[in-house]
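sanity check this:
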Amino acid sequence: MKLAAIGAPGREAPGLVRGGEALSLATFADGARDVGGLIAAWPAIEGRLTAHGLDGLARVRLEDARLAAPLLRPGKIIGVGSNFRSADGAAPDLPPAPIFFLKPSSSLIGPGDAIVAPREARSVVGEVEIAVIIGKAGRRVGPAAAMDHVFGYTIANDVTAPEILLGESARNPLFLQAARGKGFPSFCPLGPWIVTKDEIDPADMHLQQLVNGEIEAEASARLMIHSVAELVSEASDAFGLEAGDVILCGSPRPTGRRRALQAGDILTSRISGIGELVNPIRSEAAGDPDARQPGAGGY
């Protein structure tokens, strides 16, 4: 199934995307505004949906529905650095464990929302990534059991201000500013929906990033250095897992030099089996109190 958060800003509700329609799951959601509110109770909700059927659900054409980030405030967004081999299979010289960092949930935006280049950033770049949605809590989960903790997958973009991230790390490694360089509001587009794990094999996914329609990066998920199961297991060791957590699996290497995003650009993140996530770029205006500008629209 494809599950989404659908509705006007502040009035989102969980929905089901099927064909060209968005179906409301509000009657099953007990007041939840996003898919995260359904995850812990999903087996029961899925059973009720099967028994109830879809005919009585309110629906609109998908093109008329506003989709928000499917998770509005996950407990953790766990990023992974340098997790793709090059097209020839060569891997960078890395430590054996995945390189983890955290992005704040305040960095989330949804489809169509603007990525805002902050005033202090010399440049901003995008990085298309598979987003793994955790469905079951766990700690010290072994790789063999890791997939039991996965709920589904969506598309993310790990937007980064490189110069801010690097900070003064050339002078002292402790001066690296990863959280600052990756954590600005709007720096984690997520969506357009979550595909439940029964419908997709992460190893079969193909990732592609386009800027203004031109391909900037693409690769098969088979080039990932650490698999989804390994990342889930390692994250459970490092942080513990909670339902609704998000793990970003790393970005393919660019086909050339990763270009800085400019106001007016359109960033498109595509993953086969899921769909595409499109976000415009704008620059933060002086005195702008809130970088996030969610799109308008009804259910």
